[in-house]
Design goal:
Layout lengths: L15 E3 L7 E7 L3 H12 L4 E5 L12 E2 L4 H6 L3 H7 L1 E9 L5 E10 L2 H14 L3 E4 L2 E6 L5 E5 L5 E9 L6 H6 L9 E9 L7 E4 L7 E9 L2 E9 L8 H11 L1 H7 L3 E11 L9 E2 L3 E3 L15 H21 L7 H24 L2 H13 L1 H13 L9 H7 L3
Parallel strand pairs: 1-7, 2-3, 2-10, 3-7, 5-12, 10-17
Antiparallel strand pairs: 4-6, 5-6, 8-9, 9-10, 11-14, 11-15, 12-13, 13-14, 16-17
Helix pairs in contact: 1-4, 1-8, 6-7, 8-9, 10-11
Bound molecules: flavin-adenine dinucleotide.
Flavin-adenine dinucleotide binds next to α1, β3, β4, α5 and β11.
């Protein structure tokens, strides 16, 4: 059972049924994975009255290694699911982010961030899907296939039962098992590795803190306040040819090199062991469509942002796009509508992913990261572009480009 940070275990939800109890009917859609991508997609399809089965191998509420921080692109997705108020009520609102460069130049950008532990957030998201009509089951899918008639079959571990759907969805996050069997994986290697732990500490910080430290580049350390003196402290490293330390060593280097992290960690009570995970970023690595029957969505197809590692909002947005395409294909009987999905994804989410990749290339060079931190601190133009990025989800190219830097010298 997953423990809340107070030490009281979270009660398992009663609305997740064993896979054995799922009726053997032809489902409109079977979604494997009940994280933000799966739940958001399930909710939007159920709203259009499709018969949706969502299956997760974990019993909810489940743990998910994460920084537990939501940026602006989560908000419209929560609003669409009527969950914005509830998430804010259960989470904590932060008013800004302080970003440190390798030489500890720093700037603070005001903004609206909400932090909430993933077991709680994901329980809310899956619960809303269930409230809308989705059937949610526990089971580990081991194979998804397409038959002659284009129907999708799903097999599960340890039970002799095959379920069928008109369309199948893989929303299994960074787990690639199902996608691999379909041959849609282009790049096995994840984009980044990361590790986090929870601590209770008197060393205060009110803002979200990101530290792009020399020893960790390309990557960064974070301190995420969760309320009641509890912090999620972690660090991530993008896998390039300079990857030379273990994750624990990167974490140690972060704490040693960041005065704020030292303040929070010194004398802190460690309330959960450090746990690691991988990230798949840049909207690449796995093809989003298999034949005209299986759609892949969320972190499986790399929806997490490079540079910041934020992926909850993008996973949900991809779920919305996928739900629209699948819904149109099912309601018109024209599977050709699904072929629009990859290009719609690229058109709607791609430009910001490319912008974050460009920003990552700049920040990966310590001298350039320092130069940019100083420019952002000094230039009204660049600072307000940062505020706009945080508040309105603008493209980071508006900051990390030669044109923007030149402009920053006279505005
Ligand atoms: C250390 C770390 C820190 C992060 N910090 C942040 C952050 O602060 N903010 C942010 O926005 N993003 C953050 N991210 C990224 C974020 O966690 C992901 O982008 C997000 O969870 C992706 O959502 P998803 O629904 O695609 O996948 P997931 O949330 O991973 O959900 C996938 C689900 O599929 C299930 N599953 C997998 N395989 C099977 C199977 N075979 N059968 C049945 N079920 C299966 C899993 O149990 C899981 O519940 C972080 C990631 C890491 C690793």
């Amino acid at each position: 059972m997953v423990e809340a940070l107070s030490g009281t275990p979270y009660q398992p939800v009663e609305w997740q049924i064993p896979i054995e109890n799922v009726p053997e009917q032809l489902w409109d859609v079977i979604i494997i994975g009940g994280g933000p991508a799966g739940s958001s997609m399930a909710f939007h399809l159920a709203r259009r009255k499709f018969r949706v089965l969502m299956v997760d191998m974990a019993r909810f509420p489940r743990e998910k290694v994460c920084g537990d921080c939501m940026i602006t692109d989560v908000e419209p997705n929560l609003r669409a699911m009527c969950l914005s108020e509830e998430v804010r009520k259960q989470g904590m609102s932060l008013q800004g982010v302080t970003i440190f460069s390798p030489s500890r130049s720093h700037f603070t950008v005001s903004g609206d961030f909400v932090t909430l532990r993933r077991p709680v957030l994901d329980r809310l998201l899956a619960g809303k899907a269930v409230e809308t009509g989705v059937i949610f089951a526990t089971g580990k899918a081991v194979e998804m296939n397409v038959g002659e008639d284009e129907a999708v079959t799903v097999r599960f571990k340890d039970i002799d039962k095959t379920l069928q759907a008109r369309i199948g969805v893989i929303a299994t996050g960074a787990h690639l098992g199902l996608a691999r069997k379909l041959g849609v994986v282009v790049t096995e290697k994840p984009s980044a590795v990361a590790m986090r732990c929870y601590v209770r500490s008197p060393g205060r910080t009110e803002n979200l803190v990101l530290h792009y430290q020399k020893d960790i580049l390309p990557g960064y350390g974070w301190i995420v306040p969760l309320g009641k003196d509890v912090y999620n402290v972690g660090c991530g490293h993008y896998l390039d040819e300079h990857h030379h330390l273990t994750m624990r060593e990167y974490f140690k280097a972060f704490v040693a090199g960041s005065p704020l992290a030292r303040r929070v960690m010194n004398g802190a009570e460690i309330i959960s062991p450090a746990r690691g995970g991988v990230l798949r970023c840049g909207l690449k690595g796995v093809r989003p469509l298999y034949r005209r029957s299986i759609v892949l969505v969320g972190e499986t197809i790399g929806t997490t942002f490079t540079l910041t590692g934020e992926g909850i909002g993008q996973a949900m947005s991809a779920g919305v796009i996928a739900a629209a395409c699948v819904g149109d294909a099912l309601s018109t009987g024209d599977r050709g509508k699904l072929e629009l999905y990859p290009s719609l994804l690229e058109a709607k989410l791609g430009p910001r992913h490319r912008g974050f990749e460009q920003a990552q290339r700049w920040v990966a060079r310590p001298w350039l990261a320092d130069f940019m931190a100083r420019r952002i601190h000094q230039s009204r133009y660049l600072h307000s572009a940062c505020v706009d990025l945080v508040a309105n989800g603008r493209n980071p190219r508006r900051i990390y480009s030669i044109k923007a830097v030149l402009k920053s010298f006279w505005s």
